[in-house]
Task: structure prediction
Amino acid sequence: MSSSITLSAATRQNLLSLQDTASLLSTTQTRLSTGKKVNSALDNPINFFTAQNLTSRAGDLGNLLDGLSNGVQAIKAASQGITSIQKLVDSAKSAANQALSDKGTTSNGLPATAAAVSSSKSYGTLAGTTDGTQDFSTLGKDGSLDISLDGGKTKTTIRLDGATLGNNGADATKISASQLVTAINSQISNSSALKGKVAASVGSDGRLSFTTTSTGATQQLSVAGSASSTLDLGFGKAGTATGAKFTAANNVPTLAFTATAGSFLSVSDGFTTTSLAVTSTSLKSDGTAVGTAPSSADLADAYNVQLKAAGSAVTAAINGGKVEFTSQDVGPGSAVIVNIAAPPSGSTQVDVGFGATTGAAGGVSTAGTGTAATGLSSVGSDATDGSAKAIITGSTALAASTSFTAPANASFTIQLGSGPAKTIAVDATQIAAVGGTAATATRANIVDAINAQIAADTGLAGNVTASLDANNKLVLSSTKIGASQQITVTPAQGTTPGNNVNIGFGAQTSTVNGTATNTAVAISSTGKDATGSTNTTRQTLAKQFNELLSQITQQAKDTSFNGINLIYRNTSDPKENTLHITFNETGSSSIDVTGADLDADGLGLSKVTGGFQTDDEINAALSSITTATSQLRAQSSTFGANLTVVQNRQDFSKNLINILGSGAADLTSADLNEEAANSQALSTRNSLAISALSLANQAQQGILQLLR
Result:
């Protein structure tokens, strides 16, 4: 007998109607609560996924709005910076024009100037580090300079690399500008060709400068990166520089190493000698052992591990099947020296291509190459204001060659002012000391012998110098100008007439048969002070002009937004302050806003050194200001065009985001008025269905009453 409950057709129909109504009511209530008619892919797959894609794209574009906003503000900051710099440039122009119009008490001329050169870039800028230091820790990082005082005929190299700058416990990875200048001046003081004649310094703008101690048109100065230089300190660096190499005589054979049989070499880079010992247990760069049958690449790898650990500038490689050692130091001065070392007791030398006999390794040595940079040059100028040095010119021209075979000599004394007289020996010993031949000493030998002794004397060095005039007469002159400069020269060859050589200053008093002859006469000379006066108004305006140039540079440095500065960069690389702005979510649409270098140097504005005392100097400054103004206007126009593009894309992106959002909403949003009416209707239907179900059950309840 079945135990199931049987419902009448009317009851069942009413129940189904009630269930459908409840389902529709639930759906309507969901739409009303979420505001969407499509809440999942089950509701409408096409609309759901289309709306999802539109919403995702709108979100991606929204994320780019911050970048667009930052780009707009960075360009606005740069434009404001240009406006401020233009005002400073206008002020500088006003100062120059005011100086030009002031004609009162103008100097009759200018004092003599020294030869001076300044680097083309700031030391801190070229270093590119936050603390302004430069890394010279390896021989491959070389800033060596050639200094010439004779128009490039002879050069003295100032070594600026790890081997020289790392002395005295200095950290060669962080060499400051002051440390570099100290090292340069130390080497200058140890050079007979440069001592007392030139000095290095660093300015407030971080530029390295070299200045001759003497003034006048005879002063020449050239500074250039040497043939070994790899770092440009503002004076250029070597072109096509290569390092020295040493290549094995033979190819690397099939190797058979053991713990006691391997390659034992001594490799030097000219400064550091490294002992290499590679056996089967030696480690490669990946930390594994070489093994008993290493390849040529494994051998070179093991060499490099030991070279690097020793701080050597040499690296190993396989070239054409042969081991080749190369110096990272470049230029003609680089070196690689390879020797076959004696194996430790109980060990065996394996020939890897250099031979197996202790001593010089077999192979081919290739010298390093390099061409010195052109560098910077300067020539001093003579005074035009009436001032002068103390100058003594010899009475006779020097012959092309003079014999100083002992005991012949042309010695004399020099006295500066009221100081002690210092003896300058001109004899066979001093001529030989400067590379000359006593029997045929040239004019240059005589001048070099005198200057070498002057440079070696504390009181004379830097205060007096010897040279030849156009008539080949010997000239002694003070390095400074003014009435305070006084030189006295007295012959001091000796009292034997036959030994005395007159080079234009006379001969020492001597005696022949009791009678005095060749009575020595002291020769003196005194400098002169300037006869003209200085225009103090122009001088003051020149100081204002220079200060305004400093403020221009500071203004450019400070014009940054969120770390982006479009009008100043530390290096010459345009990429440093190029702003990349992405316009769409795929990155296929973008703009690169290229920055500029609008500090004083970038604008071609240089500080004046003559105090605006001449119209020529003022007119040159005004000309550079005109060029700078044109550059500022052109850059301002460029930034204006960039700003228009970025702002246009910013507005476009905002509007597109709204369109995408609206499109997604149209596909998924519910009509709340319609859904509210549906909810009301369904509630009514639900009440009617419940009443109908109650009526359908009344017939069965009547039968139940009869059964009772």
In short: Residues 389-519 form a domain with the Immunoglobulin-like fold (CATH 2.60.40). The longest strand covers residues 239-248.
